[in-house]
Structures are given as C-alpha cells and as structure tokens.
Design a protein that fits this description.
The protein is an all-beta fold. It contains no helices and 11 strands. A hairpin with a 2-residue loop joins strand 5 and strand 6. The termini are far apart.
Amino acid sequence: QVSLVESGGGLVQAGGSQNLSCAASLRTNRPYTLGWFRQIPGKEREFVAAISRGTSYYADSVKGRFTISRDDTRNSVSLQMNDMKHEDTAVYYCASFEGYCTTVGCRDRRLYRYWGQGTQVTVSS
C-alpha cells in the first residue's frame, strides 16, 4: 500500500521559482528514502535530489538552486526549485524505496521501487 502523487508542475519563467510536492502513502514504521528524478524525451531518467536518514543529497546540476524537504506531519516531500534554467525542463518524478542510501548510492534510480506518475515542468524565456 505505497503510492506517490506529484503536484505543482507547470510553466515557469527562466530565473523564476517553482515548488513541487509529492503526497506519499507509505507503510508504517519503516525507514524510507524519498527522492526526485527528472526525464526528458529520449533520455534516461536523471537523479535530482534525495533525502535519506535526515540528510539531503543533490545532483551537481541543481545544487545551490534546488532544495528537497520532508514533512513527516503531512507525509510529503517537496522540491523547491529556484533560479530555474531552460535545461530544467523535464517531467519530474517522485520516488521512494525502503531503506537508506548515501551520496553515491542515492543517485541510482534502480534503488527506487516506488514511483509517481510524474509532473511536467517547463521553463520558458
């Protein structure tokens, strides 16, 4: 009984900000890593950010611009995106797996068992 649902996608001006949210329905009393990936047509799904055991990890391309956070009260994870660039245009996916990961391991999409359906983010100029 695990599900992830993204929201907050849309059209954003270059240099602007946008916040994505993911409502997570997870099994109780289990440690979960939550993350965000993105994908453009014809390309592999790319790691963006993850939060695991209270520590946040980011892809170099978004570090300093994006911030991942987890709200245990609302059982959700969000991605605050600032100073958005054209190359940020993609379908963004919320993802999760049971357990923890480290800096390198969190980047591997194969670790993530549960995925949302994705939300389109388009950066215009």
